[in-house]
Amino acid sequence: MFTAALLMLAPLAAMASPIARTDATSQRIVLKSNTKQCVTAYGLAPQAGDILAIAPCEEPANQYYLHQFFLTEGIDSTAPVQLASTNLCIDAGSDAPSEYTSLTLQECNGSKQQSWYWFGASELEINSKFLARSCRESWLTRHSIS
Fold first, then answer.
1. Which domains does the chain have, with CATH numbers?
2. How far, in Å, CA of 64 to CA of 8, rounded?
3. What is the distance between the alpha carbons of residues 141 and 73, in angstroms, rounded to a whole number?
4. Which of 13-22, 68-77, 87-96 has the highest mean pLDDT?
5. In the beta sheet, which residues pair with residue 55?
6. What is the distance between the alpha carbons of residues 106 and 108, in angstroms, rounded to a whole number?
7. The pTM is what?
8. Which end of the chain has fewer surrounding CB within 10 Å, N or C?
9. pLDDT at residue 30 above 80?
């Protein structure tokens, strides 16, 4: 079910402070190079510390995420990306992670490493210069409204 590919980080620059989530809608995050592959939390009961992976887009809850601006066009802002129905957020590991750092789920805490930039063009980044990617797939920049 899961590919061996893990999500990794490219080099980062300074990041804006996270903003509060007010009205989020659950969506999938898919690979730009293959819209049938989704960012997936391992298992049906994900927990803090789990590493994210790429897996075929299906219907399990572990492929749906919340971000305040997913359905808002023209918004340039940051907010956490939270696994739906949990208090777990996609985490980059530190304010300045090194290249090829695995993305994990951690308890949502509003930190900079959990603040993801949505610029209203179906793309999701952290830190405005950062792109999540996997070892075997292209840049993970596209957010899909499934």
1. 7-144 (2.80.10.50)
2. 19
3. 16
4. 87-96
5. 38
6. 6
7. 0.66
8. N
9. no
